[in-house]
Structures are given as structure tokens and as C-alpha cells.
Here is the input.
Amino acid sequence: MTLLTVGIHSAGYEKEKPTITDVHFNVKKGELIGLIGPNGAGKSTTIKTILGLLEHTEGSVIFEKQSNYSYIPERPIFYDELTLWEHLDFVAAVEGLSDKEFKNKASDLLEQYQLAEHAHKFPTKYSKGMQQKAMLILAMIANPSLYIIDEPFMGLDPNAMKLFLDSIEIERERGAGILMSTHVLDTAEKICDRLIIINNGHLMASGTLEEIRIQCNLPTGSLYQCFHFIAEGNGNEE
Here is the structure.
């Protein structure tokens, strides 16, 4: 089942100056898609277009009916006056979770991410790593069909990174799809089912690593090598 179909003809911050053009891909149930590209390539613009945050957009973004999604931004965002538990309670209320379901899932996630003793504190006062973990918990409490994640590894220590990877694997097993923008290429190569490589606002290559290698004419190349081949202007637009 396809959870998200992206067919962006053009999108940008000014009407006559598109930042990205002809970006098209989909995310299926249980699939992890890596959105890869250099700084300024158009990854964030692609995500903002999917989220409906850009006014100047042509094309289509279609979510599967009755699905819900959670968005995890690159920089954590919290309400100043709410504790982490109150944030979780708010999300649970919006998503219509029962009180029992909410409390059980929230308690489990807080224990897993070692934030249980900080649940009644303000996340705006947390360290950067703790804030990132709090954002992950807020995303997972909603049991989304689809995750849209922007640079999830920023601020995570190795233990928290492993916990995150284990968590998203469990989410995939229950059928959640994941679109993840990341600069951590060695990890993306190992965990992503398919890859979307964007450069200068264009989709330059997409598919499995094997398909990316063929498109780059690097039959034994790593994702790192393919990425730099494209970033240096050698890739062919699709």
C-alpha cells in the first residue's frame, strides 16, 4: 500500500523562483525512504511542500486515505509553558487516544528513552540530545501511519541513535512508512529500502542502492561515492 505519493512540478518561496522542480517519489507501507542531498539541495523545501507549508507550489502531494503522519523537525519545537508529559497528553487528546492507551505507551516510551524522571519538567530546559529524544517520543505516541523525519540523528549520542533505529524498525514492522532526510550516509546505506538524491533542486537519482549505482555508473560504489558523484554535477536528472 502506498502511504504517500509526491509529484511536485515546482515549489519555492517566491512565485517566479522555484526552489525545487520535478521531484516525484512515493513511500509505501513499512518502507524506509532516505532523502539525501547536499546542504541547499532542496531537501527541506521538499519536506515543507509535503507538509503544505509553501504557498507557491504546483503539483500534487497525496496521503493515503485515513492515514495520519508525524513530523519530526530538525530543530525541536516545544511550548514554553508545557512539561513533556503535558505535551504528550495534548498530542494524545488530539489523536483521540484512550487514557489507558496514552498512559501505557507514554510510560513505555519515557522509560525506553530514559526521560521518565524528566517527564514533568519543561523540555525547553532540556539538553539538545534530550530535546531530540523528546521529539521522537511525541511523534511515536500518535501511532502514525507515516513518519516524516528531518535529520533525526542530530544531537543523539550512539546509545540514543541505536535506540532510535531499533524503534523505527519496530514501527516499520507494524506497517508505518518513513521518509527520512539525513546526512549520515553510512547509516542511510544500511537501513534505507530506497533512496532519493536531490541536488540543485532537482531529483538526480532514486531507487535502491543498486539502482543508484547503475544510474551513477558506479557498479560497486558506496552511497557516499554515489552521493559525491552527483553532488559534483555528474548525475543525470530524471
About this structure: The CA atoms of residues 170 and 176 lie 9 Å apart. The first strand starts at residue 2 and ends at 12. The chain has a mean pLDDT of 92.
